[in-house]
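Anyone else keep sequences and structure tokens together like this?

Example one:
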Amino acid sequence: MPEPITPAMADRAATHLTDLQELLQDLGLHARLLTQDDRLPRLRVINPEATTLSEIISAAPREDRWLFWWSWSAPITEVAHLATAAERICHVLATVSPSAA
């Protein structure tokens, strides 16, 4: 059974996601923090050049480490590795140029 979501946990997740949001926006992606009662915040990320390319990212602890997570519950990386997380998200949401196809 998952542990209950406390306000402190939600605040910590929001802080990690806001840091990621700022970096992703600097890299040209659109990102918006989504909040809902009784649920950890999530980050909706969209490639503005191809809006069908989008992803919902979350931040949550596993054991004693905080990680960023893909929507399919696979870990991206630890929240301390912000640049790595942004790079991986950008890669997944990247369009393929015609010359590369």
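And example two:
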Amino acid sequence: MRDISARELKGHNILAVERFRDETRWMIEFSVRSPRAAYGSPGDEMRLFLTEDGYQAALLSQQRREIKIKRYAHIIEGHILGFKPKKHRRHS
């Protein structure tokens, strides 16, 4: 399987206007797993620039297994900071 960064992503382009809005705080790249997901269809690889509320909604969608966040970054004034793969937590 190829890395998500090597594939064409649906959703927002890396230079999308949403990235530069004052209220934008997060960028996520994710896979759609369920037809119940708010964005895309199962199997789609997506990128979205989100407000804090939008990011919290995406985290809830991930908890419901509708999406799987692959990478994320904090956005400040249109700058992408701390681009990281989603860390997997181990449960004891």
